[in-house]
Design goal:
By secondary structure, the protein is mainly α. The protein has one domain. The chain has 6 helices and no strands. α5 packs antiparallel against α6.
Length: 168
């Protein structure tokens, strides 16, 4: 079961072109929706103004090598390992969810765009990556939601107390 490409099975009833078109359309809609949200909230204006302020208050000009070093450290420390969350349960839940989602998306894209015809022979590691990514996403998201996010008892609050912070 874990080594079977679910999109090859789906291709028996739904055209692979339809699946690929759906993925492309979703990516386009995400990009367009993000741009509309940025424009609506005026985030771009804030970031450009903040960048100007930072540039004016800078005391040192960085070389290209120093810039690359700072960017690399930021990517590795803040993005790849979510170090700003500390070393606790919240960080582990976020890492499981984040890397699980990335594995799931990559596995889905490869299987849909490369191996979605019923006659194609999918290497067994792609469906395994897809399933592992899905499991990691569910475990990370469930851990965050059920044990970290709604654990109001640990915050000395009764379980039935609903506050604005809990609403999405």
């Amino acid at each position: 079961m874990l080594s079977v490409n679910p999109f090859a099975i789906l291709a028996e009833t739904v055209s692979p072109i339809f699946m690929q078109s759906f993925v492309v359309l979703m990516v386009i809609l995400i990009v367009v929706g993000t741009l509309i949200d940025i424009i609506h909230k005026k985030n771009v204006k804030y970031f450009f103004e903040n960048a100007k302020k930072a540039k004016l208050s800078a005391t040192k000009t960085l070389s290209t090598g120093e810039r690359i070093s700072v960017i690399s450290k930021t990517i590795v420390s803040d993005i790849a390992t979510t170090s700003e969350l500390g070393a606790g349960k919240r960080r582990a839940a976020h890492l499981l969810g984040m890397y699980g989602t990335i594995l799931f998306w990559v596995g889905s894209a490869i299987m849909i765009f490369c191996y979605s015809s019923p006659s194609s022979d999918t290497p067994s590691f792609w469906p395994i990556i897809w399933h592992v990514g899905a499991i990691m996403t569910v475990v990370g998201g469930g851990w965050f939601w059920f044990f970290l996010r709604v654990d109001v008892y640990s915050e000395a609050q009764p379980w039935y107390r609903i506050i604005k912070a809990l609403e999405f």
